[in-house]
């Protein structure tokens, strides 16, 4: 493995840089943690449940990686504060954060309870906000930082029966786009990662809203069509390491882009969204996801 030793304007190499990744127990967070550590970042892989960290610890031990696992639940103010403070106590700096922790709440809007919607935002949207707020003052002091937010192609286009999830990702896009203007003068870059469908644990970890699971839901048939439309896309989806590679490229670039779409489906659907009318795009989505 070749280490990348990019020097930034302040002459700090990756070997001295500190990265914090949320949701590292599986999928994109796991692969990103390992890849950053392999490339010399002192990486804090955070998980909400330490019992799920053995695989990470094994890889780090086997390959002698500069990777430490700490507990951090993004939906808790205290857990984020404690996790970030423990990293700052040891290093006095955090150069890269990857706000990756997330899941999808699935079900027709009418089948979602307010508690389920709030929980979805607590993790996917407020979770990222908590971490950014905890780290930003230090990044500003050091005039250096990369804040990576795991959005999705679903932060710019919406599929049926997933309104709360898209709400969180559209919100993260708006927050990130606005935030970049304020922090750029302090040497901090905001990076939005927009994967299409990725073959991770994401689809096993989906939370089906409890009303959506009832056979008498008026949306049951639509839900079945959506599942059929998705299973085809999932078969050909790329693995999470492809997202990790893009994140590494973005955080080691002196001039990263604001947005990085990933995968053929993301590229094609984002292009269709740009070039089609809303009505044309809506027909395309209905054909893909609701016509089986
Ligand atoms: N896979 C896709 O198709 C896809 C596409 C676009 C965007 N994304 C985004 O990519 C990110 C990572 O997803 P993935 O595909 O890697 O899915 P994944 O394999 O299910 O990983 C999700 C991670 O988030 C963690 N997590 C959930 N809630 C948390 C909380 N409150 N605090 C801390 N960690 C929490 C999970 O921990 P536990 O193991 O404890 O549950 C897990 O480590 C998500 O933000 C997702 O929205 C995924």
Structure description:
By secondary structure, the chain is of the alpha/beta class. It has a single domain, classed as Rossmann fold (3-Layer(aba) Sandwich). 47% of the residues lie in helices and 14% in strands. The strands form two sheets. It has a seven-stranded parallel beta sheet with strand order 3-2-1-4-6-7-9, sandwiched between helices. It has a two-stranded parallel sheet with strand order 5-8. 44% of the residues are buried. Bound molecules: NADP nicotinamide-adenine-dinucleotide phosphate. NADP nicotinamide-adenine-dinucleotide phosphate binds at residues 22-23, 25-29, 48-49, 52, 73-75, 100-103, 123, 127, 150, 152, 195, 197-198, 200-202, 205, 240.
In a nutshell, what does this entry contain?
With 292 residues, the protein is of the alpha/beta class. It has helices at residues 27-38, 54-63, 77-91, 114-124, 126-142, 163-183, 220-235, 241-251, 264-275, 278-290, and strands spanning 18-21, 42-47, 67-71, 96-99, 105-106, 145-150, 188-195, 207-208, 259-262. The chain has one domain (14-224, 238-266): NAD(P)-binding Rossmann-like Domain (Rossmann fold), CATH 3.40.50.720.
